[in-house]
Amino acid sequence: MSDINRQPGVFPLSCAVQNYAWGKIGLDSEVAKLLASSDPLVQINTELPYAELWMGTHPKGDAIIVDNRITQKTLGQWIDDHPECLGSKVKDTFNGQLPFLFKVLSVNIALSIQAHPNKDLASRLHVLFPEHYPDTNHKPEMAIALTSFEGMCGFRPVEEIVAFLKNVPEFRTLIGNSAAEQLERSLGDDPRGATMALRACFTSMMKSEKKVFVDQLNMLVKRISEQVATGKDTSDSNGELLLRLHSQFPGDIGCFAIYFLNLVKLKPGQAMFLGANEPHAYLCGDCIECMACSDNTVRAGLTPKYIDVNTLCQMLNYTPAPARTKLFPSVLSSSDPCASLYNPPVPDFTVIRIEVPASMKKYSVASIDSASILLVIQGEATAASESALSDISLRRGSVLFISANESVSLDLCSQSGMLLFRACCLL
Description:
alpha+beta, Mannose-6-phosphate isomerase, 9-stranded antiparallel beta sheet, 8-stranded antiparallel beta sheet, 11 helices, elongated, 427 residues, metal-binding
């Protein structure tokens, strides 16, 4: 078959960049660095935040196909015309749609205190408030650190929260003695009692009057600032994080969330998975992110966006657990010593981390029964596939779409090996 008539199954993409205000500025951003590396003609604005790189078919950032021999201009159009490229199981399960959105995030200041609804709640919220909840899908997501990465995730053990109630009088005042004592009595109680007490405490805080929480927050910031100025250790009141968040969002109720939520610190390659109803907020660093293709986010603090405190307090998973339990492990592939799988407990996506050592001059990206998106973080190679119209040069920042049941051969050009991330759907 001639190249003119052949349908390519592998092709490069140019992907959307989102310049949200919380992103890292200019070339401090991993997103900007990847963009500049992948296309030398791109001019990076040194004063602009580069927050997210979107790799997928989301209507707000459908990837552009970088091959003028292909009729379709975007990945979404290509998949609509060639749904078989998804793989038969994926196509049938997700109604001919790519089920995930693959991203790189570069976080300079905190994202909102938030959680994502399950499918049932997402459907109800969409009917009631379509302007705030634009679709009916759930939005589980996973973050894999590219640099040192910090986030808050899940409720702390009750013992830690009770310690803050003792050490931070402003926090206790905001919660109120009744709810605070209920939580203290729940220590050593059955898990249900602790969960109910935790719900009462968090709801009491989130629904407190603005003047009350602003006054208590100002008192706390003043006290911590004075302690820092005199060299006193403020770790028993989480002082460093409090001052950092208050400098970013002064007078925001979300500053008090640090006493409820775990602080999770990820090293490069470590991950956390955020299922439905899990309270969380990214704080700083660069990460790979993969999620179900949805825009549904319920927010309650550290944001200028729409806040829905009632929904958040009702929906959250109030099960307390240590920070270490929020780390999501990767598993070495049984068939590829270069590959590690981050396989969350949802059908929508899996992320594969591929680290090819410098000693390997050739590597084969394996065929799987799912469409996938491949991102180059480090290294250079020439990619070849039976269904590609021609060989494709890959470098740092390159993004490649791979149809289901297609393999890709890489001839490595760099002396430092390669680091790749591949998003797919392993049903």
